[in-house]
Design brief:
Blueprint lengths: L5 H18 E5 L5 E5 L4 E5 L5 E6 L19 E7 L3 E7 L1 H5 L1 H4 L13 H14 L3 E7 L5 E4 L25 E3 L5 E3 L3
Antiparallel strand pairs: 1-2, 2-3, 3-4, 5-6, 6-7, 7-8, 9-10
């Protein structure tokens, strides 16, 4: 049986948003084609106007195909993406250590071999990973060439950390943002 009504709709909308942001997103380009983003491993596929892959990009080279079978042993790479001025795709990305090393210190119970799954342990370890590894990095992809570059300076008005001053996750419901013509980032959930 499927629940209906405003509360159920809100619940399923959040679930769909979580699934969309956790797994993949398609961003159409103004002319033709687009980008298909796989958030967890940090893969971006630039597509031509017919949907064929014209370039494959991995944000972190260390996150190769060998790591794909054990995705839940890592944190998601891509937080969000938006088209920027001048033919770029701006990417908000978890810091390298947050993605690749945080589970070394705070492993998820389902990954570390714990015999029984305890949701409280899982939640507490996820909070610990977030507290210790909350850095946001900003990257850009040139849509035409497919070149990926790390932005040394975060875009104006963009967050640099996933936590607020009280240690709470600012983006528990997703990381939607837009880039205005001036290059300024505007978060859509705050």
């Amino acid at each position: 049986m499927i629940a209906t009504g405003p509360v159920a709709n809100r619940k399923y909308t959040r679930l769909l948003l979580a699934q969309r942001t956790a797994f993949n997103t398609f961003i159409p380009f103004d002319q033709e084609g687009g980008a298909l983003l796989f958030h967890w491993p940090g893969y971006v596929f630039l597509l031509d106007g017919k949907g064929a892959v014209r370039k494959t990009i991995r944000i972190y080279e260390e996150f190769d195909e060998g790591k794909l079978p054990s995705l839940n042993a890592y944190e998601p790479v891509l937080l969000g993406a938006a088209l920027g001025p001048g033919g770029t795709l701006l990417l908000a990305v978890r810091g390298r250590d947050g993605v690749l090393k945080s589970h070394d210190f705070y492993p998820a119970p389902e990954v570390d071999g714990t015999s029984t799954f305890d949701p409280e342990v899982s939640i507490n370890r996820a909070k610990d990973r977030l507290r210790q590894f909350s850095e946001i990095e900003w990257w850009e992809i040139d849509i035409e060439s497919g070149d990926l570059s790390h932005s040394e300076n975060a875009p104006f008005n963009s967050p640099f950390c996933l936590l607020n001053s009280r240690g709470e996750n600012l983006f528990a419901d997703g990381f939607p943002f837009i880039v205005e013509a001036s290059g300024q980032v505007r978060m859509m959930n705050n």
